[in-house]
Specification:
This protein is 44% helix and 18% strand. By secondary structure, the protein is an alpha/beta fold. Strands 3-2-1-4-5-6 form a six-stranded parallel sheet, with helices on both faces. β4, α4 (83-92) and β5 (96-100) form a beta-alpha-beta unit.
Length: 147
């Protein structure tokens, strides 16, 4: 079982990540969102420690790591313009990071993320959830059949 933290739990894509974490038998131990009315979290992981303050969230992660309570991944579901900041925050906390595309909005942001990966020895894993959407899969099949 892997332990996850998640940023942006109140966002559009977060329920897909919550579902994936749960269905794969993993655990969400900490979540962050600027809004505290994100009841979706309780339906998946009622014991998750929830934060509205980023500093308190990252302090909690650091405390858990020091105490030997391993957190393996940070999942970033925040708005695109915050991805770089949140990815680097996770890497610096000693976590591998999962982030929806786009990872960053500017080429220089990618360079900063790559540098943080090198410095921390941790990795960023980029995914595109929509590739699994039934409508997208149907479109792909239609294109394959037409060719």
């Amino acid at each position: 079982m892997k332990n996850f933290a998640l940023i942006g739990v109140g966002g559009y894509i977060a329920p897909k990540h919550l579902q994936a974490i749960k269905e794969t038998g993993n655990r969400l131990v900490a979540a962050l969102d600027i809004h505290d009315s994100v009841g979706i979290l309780d339906s998946y992981f009622p014991d998750t420690v929830f934060f509205t303050d980023a500093d308190a969230f990252i302090n909690y992660i650091n405390e858990q790591q020091v105490a030997g309570n391993r957190i393996d991944y940070l999942t970033v579901c925040s708005p695109n313009h915050l991805h770089e900041e949140h990815i680097i925050m996770g890497l610096e906390a000693g976590l591998d990071v999962i982030c929806e595309k786009p990872v960053a909005l500017y080429p220089e942001s990618i360079q900063r993320i790559k540098k943080a990966e090198q410095q921390t020895g941790k990795k960023v894993y980029t995914i595109m959830q929509l590739r699994l959407h039934p409508a997208i899969q149907a479109l792909e099949q239609k294109i394959r059949n037409a060719g």
